[in-house]
Design a protein that fits this description.
Blueprint: H1 20-41, H2 46-49, H3 53-57, H4 63-84, H5 95-105, H6 108-120, E1 126-132, E2 138-144, E3 155-161, H7 168-171, H8 175-182, H9 188-198
Antiparallel strand pairs: 1-2, 1-3
Helix pairs in contact: 1-4, 5-6
Length: 200
């Protein structure tokens, strides 16, 4: 059975960039709902229910639960990842990861611009991702809805939720303002760790 992970910080820790009420609803209601629906979909398949979420999403799933697992399991995976790459005490990226950003995108600021454009280009609900490919290249991808980023051998190192529930209470329809604020809480040390693991 899958369970809601604890946040690595308090609900109000990301103020003023992400407000307390949004964090409470996003974690306690939205993420919990994905987990509840995932567990319900897996009730008939105890062998699948015991798998880690990453392995489950990459499994050959029965047709009768496949979409439910993609939707809700993807939501569980994406959100569990998302909470970890934010921090109330962000630091600037450095080392091999910063070098890879500079090599791929030209500079940290150019990367932020490209990532922001990718997030803004998502029609409706979805996620923007920075991924490491099987060939160890950095790429930007957008995924609709809760489709997980771990398909095709890609490994996520940074992701942004642009579903309206992630920002509407504070930013209403101003997605650009939300994205601009979000850069202030990116947990770059965690992103660097993700990069190091994905690059091995």
């Amino acid at each position: 059975m899958h369970v809601l992970p604890n946040l690595p910080y308090d609900y109000g820790a990301l103020e003023p960039y992400i407000d307390t009420q949004t964090m409470e609803l996003h974690h306690n209601k939205h993420h919990q709902a994905y987990i509840d629906n995932l567990n319900k979909a897996l009730e008939k398949y105890p062998d699948l229910a015991s798998k880690k979420i990453e392995n489950l999403l990459l499994s050959d799933l029965p047709e009768d639960i496949k979409q439910a697992v993609v939707n809700n399991g993807g939501g569980h995976f994406n959100h569990s990842f998302f909470w970890e790459i934010m921090s109330p005490k962000p630091e600037n990226p450095k080392g091999p990861f910063l070098e890879a950003l500079n090599s791929t995108f030209g500079s940290l600021e150019k990367f932020k611009d490209a990532f922001t454009q990718k997030a803004m280009s998502i029609f409706g609900s979805g996620w923007a991702w920075l991924l490491v490919t099987p060939k160890k290249k950095l790429i930007l991808k957008r995924h609709s809805f809760q489709n997980p980023p771990i398909v095709n051998g890609n490994k996520p190192i940074l992701g942004l939720d642009v579903w309206e529930h992630a920002y509407y209470l504070k930013y209403q329809n101003k997605r650009a303002d939300y994205i601009k604020a979000w850069w202030n809480v990116v947990n770059w040390p965690k992103v660097q760790k993700n990069f190091n693991l994905a690059s091995k």
